[in-house]
């Protein structure tokens, strides 16, 4: 199993953080354009899902899957959005996203008074912690089935 | 130990009273300080409780009640709902912030606990709720309880992505 890349958006659609581990094909546009495209799509899926759902949804949009990869989506009540792309066999990615939020984002961004929230994250501490956390997670380490 | 918090907060207020001439300005600054704490504190709260969006204001009140317990170690009562259901109060019979405090006569206008109002406003703004919060009763001013009033103004809408045309 592998983790390809990760996006963090704030509630206004600003890309707070992007990083990649195993991305073999680039989108061929700038990071800014890609972020806008990504956020726009997520926004549309979100409203699509809630409109088309035959039942009242609690969590709404969770993930989508293609033949090659799965995009996992976690939205916090504060509007923060964490998106991670993995291969199709990855298990427990939702927990991983929740942990990235509570153990990395909250600890090293929110609780760090000199990093301003709602702006792209510059903190090196956050970067290294996130990198180590993802690389040591079960999702990243376990071998493809 | 909550005494350290009480004393630190007391030192902060004392310093602000010294720095600013006007007592109303101190109250205002305390509220702003609380607001800035609230917008960060909400993330910590959401991470620790992994709670979702609120269905209604009653739900919100319950959750703030649990936040009081988490961060101040007190359990306020939720009471005095307005007829329209858009206003309610938290009643605290003990307030850790004011435990070792007595207000001198020249500071009777000071809203000592205004920081809590700011925290509530800031935290709720981050979860798409615009509220107003103020102190109705204050043990420091001779009332038997501390009462914090919360009034729901409106729901803030999700931002639409920019440049979608």
Automatic annotation (TrEMBL), chain A:
<protein>
    <recommendedName>
        <fullName>Trafficking protein particle complex subunit</fullName>
    </recommendedName>
</protein>
<dbReference type="GO" id="GO:0005783">
    <property type="term" value="C:endoplasmic reticulum"/>
</dbReference>
<keyword id="KW-0931">ER-Golgi transport</keyword>
<keyword id="KW-0813">Transport</keyword>
<keyword id="KW-0333">Golgi apparatus</keyword>
<comment type="subunit">
    <text>Part of the multisubunit transport protein particle (TRAPP) complex. The heterodimer TRAPPC6B-TRAPPC3 interacts with TRAPPC1 likely providing a core for TRAPP complex formation.</text>
</comment>
<keyword id="KW-0256">Endoplasmic reticulum</keyword>
<comment type="similarity">
    <text>Belongs to the TRAPP small subunits family. BET5 subfamily.</text>
</comment>
<dbReference type="GO" id="GO:0006888">
    <property type="term" value="P:endoplasmic reticulum to Golgi vesicle-mediated transport"/>
</dbReference>
<dbReference type="InterPro" id="IPR011012">
    <property type="entry name" value="Longin-like_dom_sf"/>
</dbReference>
<dbReference type="GO" id="GO:0030008">
    <property type="term" value="C:TRAPP complex"/>
</dbReference>
<dbReference type="GO" id="GO:0005794">
    <property type="term" value="C:Golgi apparatus"/>
</dbReference>
<dbReference type="InterPro" id="IPR007233">
    <property type="entry name" value="TRAPPC"/>
</dbReference>
<dbReference type="Pfam" id="PF04099">
    <property type="entry name" value="Sybindin"/>
</dbReference>
UniProtKB/TrEMBL annotation, chain B:
<keyword id="KW-0333">Golgi apparatus</keyword>
<comment type="similarity">
    <text>Belongs to the TRAPP small subunits family. BET3 subfamily.</text>
</comment>
<dbReference type="InterPro" id="IPR007194">
    <property type="entry name" value="TRAPP_component"/>
</dbReference>
<dbReference type="GO" id="GO:0048193">
    <property type="term" value="P:Golgi vesicle transport"/>
</dbReference>
<dbReference type="GO" id="GO:0005794">
    <property type="term" value="C:Golgi apparatus"/>
</dbReference>
<dbReference type="GO" id="GO:0005783">
    <property type="term" value="C:endoplasmic reticulum"/>
</dbReference>
<dbReference type="GO" id="GO:0030008">
    <property type="term" value="C:TRAPP complex"/>
</dbReference>
<keyword id="KW-0931">ER-Golgi transport</keyword>
<dbReference type="InterPro" id="IPR024096">
    <property type="entry name" value="NO_sig/Golgi_transp_ligand-bd"/>
</dbReference>
<keyword id="KW-0813">Transport</keyword>
<protein>
    <recommendedName>
        <fullName>Trafficking protein particle complex subunit</fullName>
    </recommendedName>
</protein>
<dbReference type="Pfam" id="PF04051">
    <property type="entry name" value="TRAPP"/>
</dbReference>
<dbReference type="InterPro" id="IPR016721">
    <property type="entry name" value="Bet3"/>
</dbReference>
<keyword id="KW-0256">Endoplasmic reticulum</keyword>
